[in-house]
Amino acid sequence: MTLKFFFGKARKDGTCPLRIRFKANELQDQKITIQGLAIRTNLWDKHLNRVLPEHPAYRDINEKISLYESKMRDVSEKYRVGNIDFDTACRMMRSSSSMISIRDFINQLENLDDKKRTTIVNYHNSINAFSFHTKIKEPLFSDITYINISKMRKSLSELNKSPESHNKYLRDIKAICRSAYKFKMVFELPDFDRSWAAKKSPINKVKTVLPIDIIEAIERIELNSKHNRSRKKVVKQFEAVGLWMLMFSMRGMYPADINEISSKNLDYNFESRIKAELADTKSELSLRGNPFLYSHQRHKTEIPMKIMLNMPPIRKLIAVLRYLVSASHPKDAFQSQEESQMTSYKKRIQTKTPEEVDHFKIFSFTEESDPERYKEMWNNYYKQLRDIGMPTFKVARKTFMTTSTLLDIPQSIGRTMLGQKDPSISAHYNNFDDPRLFVKVTQAHIKVLREFNIIDIYNIWLRKIDELFGSNWHEIYGFSIQQDLLYVNFYKEVENMVQITHTKIKNM
């Protein structure tokens, strides 16, 4: 086997392209040009395989040659032991990158660039999709070409996948390549112009639903037998509907945001509150911060969102969901079944340290802490929605957005409600703490919930749970007051609630 440097024919400017000859036998003989390397032969040391210091760019060129030498040793060894065939070896040598595969690079990237686990998982999913649709088993950076990306786009289209699916994979592939360039794993980037992307439909209709659609889905939930499996399935269906309502009620949050709901995001120091409530002596503590205000960075954009957590039906929805999840997903639930059944509040918080107590957390994990578990759980919830003819969770956000538009709520307020960037509010989000803005956002939030009749839907949901399981949850968690009156009163009190700056904790 021969694997060595040599020079091609001289060009008009007197330089010769540096090439690599890879010969396995008489039939397998390839000459590979190193892209971007053309050198005058009088500036080449043939014994060291290096450019002489007289060359103005000798350091950069020699660094690149050194990487190719390392690649040649790796290819030679892999071919010698039979790990790769001749064609694969040639393809590796033609790559302008290191020998490392894209998958191997992604594995290293978590440590190299402090990437989130979810980002790493998404990168792997996108490269796996690229591999599947191009039939390239172990993609290299040299495989990221317009032709191969086009193959992926065509394959996805033939499988009736949306243009958004292709563009999502492409965005991840671009990000991977940029990181590889940053860490000198590749020395040039593909063009990645608009032609690489899949064209979206000229008319992109936003799917939304009406309150009757949710109500009809709730009515489809039926307990077909007394078998435990049937009961658990029905509970999961109720959970899926409840989670949809919670996403809508919390201004279009996504599943990842729901997994991150926590008392730790309240405006005051929640741990200090629990410590005060566990104290043996009667005391009153005043903590700086609003007791109703919930601060959250939207998972997708990291844009801050502020929500009045006492906005009906948010707190009651969370309480019911915590109970349901503890019954159907004991391993995934933050609150255990034993804890959920305790009637004594003090006894309930005494079972944990102050740091472990959380009144709002539904699940024991997030997308970041356990992406595979997260994916499996939410895929199951998606299935439950399909089984009862319920719209997907993303539609909750779209429906909130559409309802806001129909109410003629200003776009700037609408974007702020949804956690979207809006330069007209603030380029750096400095104005999110302005009480006047927050009052307007909260009042708009009330209008959307009222327009969608979310309280009525919530009450129907509770009554259906009672009907199938013989419970009395509507009496405990339901709203007896008429929806319009409830929201009118809340609307009037918003300005006063926003002005609260301290949370008083009484220990009786």
Characterization of this structure:
A hairpin with an 8-residue loop joins strand 1 and strand 2. Mean pLDDT is 86; it is low at 425-430. This protein has 508 residues and is mostly helical. 51% of the residues lie in helices and 10% in strands. The strands form four sheets. A three-stranded antiparallel β-sheet has the order 1-2-3, with helices on one face. Strands 4-5 form a two-stranded antiparallel ribbon. Strands 6-9 form a two-stranded antiparallel sheet. The chain is elongated. The protein has three domains: 2-94, no CATH class; 102-196, DNA polymerase, domain 1; 211-507, no CATH class. The longest helix has 23 residues, at 58-80.
Features:
about 500 residues; 3 domains; 9 strands
β-strand number: 9
Low-confidence stretches: 425-430
Rg over C-alpha atoms, rounded to the nearest angstrom: 30 Å
Proportion of residues in extended strands: 5-15%
Question: Average pLDDT, to the nearest integer?
Answer: 86
Number of domains: 3
Task: Tell me roughly what share of residues is in helical segments.
Answer: 40-55%
What string gives the helices and strands in order? EEEEEHHHHHHHHHHEEEHHHHHHHHHHE
The helix tally amounts to: 20
Structural class: mainly alpha
Strand order of the largest sheet: 1-2-3
Shape: elongated
How far apart the termini lie comes to 86 Å
Major sheet details: 3 strands, antiparallel
